[in-house]
């Protein structure tokens, strides 16, 4: 992105990420994600060919709702038929015939499992296709998939913390080098776990604002001297079922210049004309810096993703597809990918 069209905060984050990456490069910590092209045992068969598509609800949409439940405390009582209202498979895609057919076809042609974690042997072109599709859906330029939505939040927070560590003058970030993360009090447990991790590593100071209370958030932001501010919120809160006040958050972003991260787990495929989530509803995709999501809810499967906007896309060309682990790779997906 041309520096002139960037806000001061955007330019600062870009500069930080570039510095963090060049430090990794210098220390030879950069790892490249190979792209694997699987060989088809039966060359004519393409699991993505002739896929069924669908326009609206079908009979499968309700079938899974009826379940039989056994009370583990009272096995003698037998099973009771119940309607399941507690699932997250909002569109029932998990049992849609087209999805089942595509999944079984893919397993028949390619077999099961990734053979190793992606850190070891990379992603197939189908993983890449999924990432590109999710980036398009959320109107971001790039996306990285993770094993779960939980892992997406902890991985992103870990990568964010590593930006503070890698750009610090000394081994640990000094007070002014730490990132200030403002988190809604009712954010998902995976965000809370990730926040604890970066706090423990002394890479960030965490400020919890009262649920959806923009006045409180504004006060905390105004009173915080840190330059590197991040606001992190669920877009639709899982326990309360209410939305974050997105337009007010966008106004605060303009005022305070923070990095805006949303956990869009519950609105992907559910909200927006194209299923692009909450940002699509308001047409504010360009105001969301990082969009975290899961594939275990409306997508009806399992997995998570981190989609990110142009300013994190600071290394093109030579760095394409680079993963950025820190020195603490053993702690899991502490990565940030720059395309
Ligand atoms: C807001 C939110 N974020 C993240 C997650 C974690 O997603 P996953 O179940 O894919 O790990 C959930 C799941 O309940 C959630 O509700």
TrEMBL record:
**SUPFAM superfamilies reported in the protein's UniProt record:** PLP-dependent transferases
Example GO CC term: the record gives: endoplasmic reticulum membrane
Cofactors named for this entry: pyridoxal 5'-phosphate
What this protein catalyses is: L-serine + hexadecanoyl-CoA + H(+) = 3-oxosphinganine + CO2 + CoA
Q: Which UniProt keywords apply?
A: Lipid metabolism, Pyridoxal phosphate, Sphingolipid metabolism, Transferase
Q: What class of enzyme is it?
A: transferase
Instruction: Say which domain of life the source belongs to.
Output: Eukaryota
Involved pathway(s): Lipid metabolism; sphingolipid metabolism; Sphingolipid metabolism
Family affiliation: Belongs to the class-II pyridoxal-phosphate-dependent aminotransferase family. BioF subfamily.
Protein name according to UniProt: serine C-palmitoyltransferase
Organism listed in the record:
Colocasia esculenta
Q: What is the lineage of its organism?
A: Eukaryota, Viridiplantae, Streptophyta, Embryophyta, Tracheophyta
GO MF annotation terms: pyridoxal phosphate binding; serine C-palmitoyltransferase activity
User: One biological-process term from Gene Ontology?
Assistant: biotin biosynthetic process
Can you say where in the cell this protein is located?
Endoplasmic reticulum membrane
Question: Topology in the membrane?
Answer: Single-pass membrane protein
């Amino acid at each position: 992105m041309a520096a002139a069209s960037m806000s001061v905060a955007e330019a600062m984050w870009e500069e930080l990420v570039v510095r963090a990456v060049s430090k990794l490069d210098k220390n030879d910590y950069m790892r490249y994600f190979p792209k694997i092209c699987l060989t088809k045992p039966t060359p004519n068969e393409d699991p993505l060919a002739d896929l069924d598509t669908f326009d609206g609800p079908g009979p499968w949409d309700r079938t899974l709702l009826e379940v039989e439940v056994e009370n583990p405390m009272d096995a003698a009582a037998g099973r009771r038929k119940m309607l399941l209202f507690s699932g997250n498979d909002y569109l029932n895609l998990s049992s849609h015939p087209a999805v089942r057919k595509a999944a079984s076809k893919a397993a028949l042609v390619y077999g099961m499992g990734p053979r190793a974690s992606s850190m070891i042997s990379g992603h197939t072109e189908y993983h890449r296709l999924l990432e590109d599709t999710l980036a398009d859906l959320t109107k971001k330029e790039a996306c990285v998939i993770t094993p779960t939505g939980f892992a997406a939040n902890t991985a992103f927070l870990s990568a964010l913390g590593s930006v503070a560590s890698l750009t610090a003058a000394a081994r640990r970030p000094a007070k002014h080098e730490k990132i200030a993360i403002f988190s809604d009090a009712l954010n998902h447990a995976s965000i809370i776990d990730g926040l604890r991790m970066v706090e423990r590593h002394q890479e960030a100071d965490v400020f919890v604002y009262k649920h959806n209370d923009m006045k409180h958030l504004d006060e905390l932001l105004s009173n915080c001297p840190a330059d590197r501010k991040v606001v992190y919120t669920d877009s639709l809160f899982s326990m309360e079922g209410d939305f974050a006040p997105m337009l007010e958050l966008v106004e605060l972003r303009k005022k305070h210049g923070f990095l805006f991260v949303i956990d869009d787990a519950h609105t992907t495929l559910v909200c927006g004309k194209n299923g692009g989530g909450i940002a699509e509803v308001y047409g504010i995709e360009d105001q969301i810096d990082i969009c975290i999501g899961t594939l275990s809810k409306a997508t009806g499967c399992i997995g998570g993703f981190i989609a990110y906007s142009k300013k994190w896309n600071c290394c093109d060309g030579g760095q394409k597809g680079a993963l950025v682990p820190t020195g603490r790779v053993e702690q899991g997906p502490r990565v940030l990918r720059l395309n």
